Every structure is written in C-alpha cells, then in structure tokens.
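Throughout this chapter, every protein is written as a compact record of paired, labelled lines. The reader may check this reading against the record printed directly beneath this paragraph:
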Amino acid sequence: MPAVIGASPAAVALGLPPGLGLPVAVPPAPLAHGPTGARAWSDLALVVSLALLCAGYARGVHELWHRRGLGAVVPRWRAVAFGLGVAAILAALTGPVHERAERSFAGHMAQHMILLVVAGPLLAAGAAGLPLALAAPRRLRRRWARWRGARVGTWLRRPGRLAVTAALAHAGALWAWHLPAGYRLAERDELAHAVEHASFVGTALLLWSLVWGARRQRLPGPVAVLLLFATMLAASALGAALTLASAPIYPGDVLARYGGDPLADQQRAGLVMWIPMDVVVLAAAVALFLRWLSRLDRAAPAGRDLLPPAAPPVRSTARSSAGRETPR
C-alpha cells in the first residue's frame, strides 16, 4: 500500500493543506538483512570472520614454506586461489552485488551463484585444510585427530561415502534455502540469512575439495566426473522448475520488490541458477576427464601399441603331384 505523506511535494504544488497529502509510493524496506543496526553488525562479523580465516591460512602457509621451502606443499597458485575465494565472498555479500540482491530475486540468485560456483571452488583450490590445521591451537588439533581416528571419522573419510555426503549436502543446501519457506526464513531473519550463506560456501568447499583440492583428498577422475554431473542435475532441476513455472512460486513481496513482472523476475532467477552452474560444472568435468586420460597415457609403457599384435602366418604342407611336400 502506498504511504500517505502530509507534506508531499505534490500537495504543496496543488496548495493542499498538510493534513490532506497525496498518496506517495514508498519503496518497501529490504527484507533480507533486517534493520540497519543488524546489518552493520552482520558486516562486522563477516569482515572479522574472513580476516581470522585469512590470518590462519597465512600462518599455516608460512609455517609450511619455512620448513619445506617457498612454494612447497601449498604452491603459490593455490595461495592466490584462496585469496581470490575470500575476495569473491566479500564481493558477493557487499557492494553492488548486495544492493542488487536487495532489489530483486534474480539479483539474490546471482549472489548465491557467486558463493556456490566462484567462492567455493576457489577456496577448495586453496587446499586450506593443512594450513588451517597448523594454525589451530594444539588442543583443537588433538581433538580433530581423535575425531578423524574415531569410527565415524573413519567411515566418512572413505572416498565413496565422502562423495555421496558432499553431493547430498550441496544439493540439500541448494534446495532447502530456495524453497519458499526456507527463502522467506532467510529473508526475515538475519541469523538464518548468515547460516544460509555459510552453508552455500561450506558445502561448495567440501564438494570442490574432492575435485581439485589437495592430492590426498581428490577423488579418482571418473568418480569426480560422476560427482559433478550429479551436482549439475540437482541444480538444473531447481533452475528449470523456477524458469519453466507458469505462475510465481514465491510470495509477492519476494519477487519484483521494486516493480516489474513477478513471474519474469522468478524466471530470470531460474536462468541465473541454471546456466552458470551448468557451464562451470560441465567445464570442470571435461577438464577432469581429459586430465585423467592424459595421466593414463603417461602411465602407459613407452612404445606400447594399442592394436593387438598381428597373428603370424600359418604354414601348412601338402603333397604336390610330384610326390614331394611344398609349402602352401
């Protein structure tokens, strides 16, 4: 409903008294981040969390390079990838991207895709597990080691089970927070919104760590390709549901909040989820498959022929008409 403002410019121009103001359309207040004070505290918590994460990673990498040499264990390109992943999180949750997310459902979906297909893979490429473990307090490292050696930790660390867990967690977070009930909860509660973003980054980090994280964590090539295709199918199904729906699925205060067609806003959001996720996952799957084939070729013995060796000619003997044996 448009608000009635007593001293509107139109009322003044028409000479109306202040009490008889004309209706003036006032844009609705953003729902995603609550009051300004709560938003300020959320920004502060984000900056502090990322600063602590970068400090721990830098300390661990410095310790590894001091012991093993510059670029050892964690190559320089992985350290750069980690920094770019942190920058992607900041870009998604602050600045123009955040402002766009406040105004439309499609903008909000673009923010989520940056966290899922940009920040998560870059953080995974940074191979942060060992550096952060070295930077953690000794007591925390001991507890982590005990958990890894326990029955649950051993069960989860098996490659097949870890791949299934990562795929289910990624798909579950994607679907749960984009169903109308989950999306409205994140829109209206600041803590739920922070948990939503953390779940996107965390599940993407877990998934992509199995693809191109540290060598000891990576899955074999064919298994990683299957994992990526399963992830792509889950995201494509949700994107297709939003894009091809004949009517808006979400409430009116979520779609086209500042004007426009609600169904078009929902369809644009579905395309933003559908296309970037599929392109990134498909490109990564093709790269993994080609790398797996290249490793198979390098592991093959030199000079090996893929064709089976030719069979030697069969020599038989037969008596000629002269009574002697001649080869035939």
Summary: The longest helix spans residues 262-299. The first strand starts at residue 3 and ends at 4. Strands lie at 3-4, 23-24, 317-319, 325-327.
